[in-house]
Specification:
Blueprint lengths: L4 E2 L4 E4 L4 H11 L20 E7 L2 E13 L2 E10 L8 H15 L4 E3 L6 H6 L4
Parallel strand pairs: 5-6
Antiparallel strand pairs: 1-2, 2-3, 3-4, 4-5
């Protein structure tokens, strides 16, 4: 497990997903879908899954799920990457992704993901193609 906090970047590794995390996923990623669709059965409960969160003023403003899911030589997959609409364009998403990349690199592997069209430029800036 990575260190609990990354003070330099304002990020916190969480051991499990909590209601604030689920609420942010639902708000940002599940428009038009029923409540409950923000939960990833089998993934959120997997002991290998990691959760990286960004807080401002004690409030969750960004979150991500790092799932163990091997593909093309990469051991990890980013899921549930969400930044509160009021906090977008402040570098929060990039900080989260870069910290996830650092963690994967420390494990000797890489990360893959699927992304919404609006998020592609941020992922490209972080080195994804």
């Amino acid at each position: 497990m990575p260190p609990a906090t990354d003070v330099k970047n304002g990020l916190v590794w969480e051991e499990s997903v909590d209601q604030a995390h689920l609420d942010l996923r639902f708000e940002v990623l599940r428009e038009g879908l029923p409540r409950g669709s923000e939960h990833y059965p089998g993934i959120d409960e997997d002991a290998r899954t990691r959760f990286l969160c960004a807080y401002e003023g004690g409030n969750l403003v960004g979150c991500s799920t790092l799932q163990t899911d091997e593909r093309e030589g990469c051991r990890f997959r980013i899921r549930g990457m969400a930044v509160s609409p009021d906090f977008r364009n402040r570098g929060i998403g990039s900080r989260i992704v870069k910290r996830l990349q650092k963690y994967a690199s420390e494990q000797g592997t890489g990360i893959w993901c699927n992304a919404r069209i609006r998020a592609v430029p941020m992922y490209k800036r972080c080195g994804f193609v």
